[in-house]
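Morning run. Coffee first, then this:
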Amino acid sequence: MSPASFMHALALVGYFSLLALWLLWNTVLAPSQRLPIALALMMSVLPLMLPLRGLLYRQAGAYLLAAVLSLGYFMHGVTEATANAAERVPAVLEVAFSLALFFGASLSLRYRR
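And here it is:
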């Protein structure tokens, strides 16, 4: 497996894991008491939908967008892990998945050439 293929696979694993985690987090693990579930899903999952097609077709712009979006999820995970002890496990998973997405997307761009 070439480094570019490995990084692409890492980006996809991070992406789909982050997507699944957010779907579970907002519906099963800790649904919001203040917002409707549909609104919480739109605010958290909809930004992840933007680079989906481009990631599947290995487009450079989608890798860049996914890397930038993953930084927001990373910041949310770190903040949630330190502020809320009840949701520490999903928050640490969010940090791990967002880092996998970030490094996979960033290094996929690096190894494209």
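The chain has one domain: 3-111. Good start to the day.
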